[in-house]
Amino acid sequence: MNQEELLTRIESLADPTRVRLLRLLERHELGVLELSDVMQLPQSTVSRHLKHLADRGWVRHRAQRTANLYRLASDELPSGPRRLWQVTRSETEGWAALAQDQLRLERRLKERGADAQAFFASAATRWDKLRDELYGRAFPAGMMAALLPAEWTVADLGCGTGQLAATLGPHVKHVIGVDQSAAMLKAARKRIAGLANVELRQGALEALPIEDGLCDGALMALVLGYLAVPGPALAEAARVLAPGGRAVIVDVMRHDREEFARQMGHANLGFAPEELRDLLQAAGFEDIAVRPLPPEAGAKGPALLLATGRTPGRVTRTRKP
What we know:
By secondary structure, the chain is α/β, with parallel strands linked by helices. The protein folds into two domains: 3-93, Arc Repressor Mutant, subunit A (Orthogonal Bundle); 125-310, Vaccinia Virus protein VP39 (Rossmann fold, 3-Layer(aba) Sandwich). Helices cover 44% and strands 20% of the residues. It is built from 13 helices and ten strands. The strands form two sheets. The chain has a seven-stranded mixed β-sheet, sandwiched between helices. Helix 10 links the parallel strand 5 and strand 6 (198-202). The radius of gyration is 21 Å and the shape is globular. The relative contact order is 0.11.
């Protein structure tokens, strides 16, 4: 950065309201009404500060019906401003206002989460066909190729109708499928009938019904897009993995198809590779790799990302039968 740009960037962060806005927009797309509610500030004040941040390249926005949704332009910031934001973020961790903002934000995001549960309740009977049409059939094989030592216990988190759990069952020692949707689990139980090493458990991804360190691998296939706050679910995945355990995640790459996200009940517009990397790192994973998956011929949905990461410690143990 030259001197003028440096001073301009510093000036942008010299206001506590703008710092609070950037902290809220770092992980979520939010509208002015949501930000006003969370920050307990007039809409005019929020709009004025958002314009300031947008003019200086800190935030981006997109139209959604009659409103705009804003987010931190983290994947577009040059290296200098990115480092400046990282320092600012670190030095503001103890702000009381940020803790208050986070509590109100969680309330707003829970309201969004109701949309995803309604979608799964209605989509359970057609989910397999819908997923194949949108994303193709090849990506589960890619997830298995990233795992699959035969002695592993694998958690299929957000297992849905059990398609992946049933495919994994013959290849690993034990599969634990977890989903919050009763309708999805009902379909999954029919699919895994006869597979003695596959079990299903009902529970939230943010509070998994699995013991600490029980699993060698954890899969999350097209799950994070339904979570308004993905971080806690990734932290739970890390908790249930043994030292050196591996997480494998496939999810939607960031896109601009708002109508698609609405129809699918998504809480976001996918993830940029660096964003998914940061989420995994914050959850405690290391040796993280994120790459796009080549779109399958005929797939109608957005492109997908494949991400892997390991929990700290020695490589995964070999389990005794």
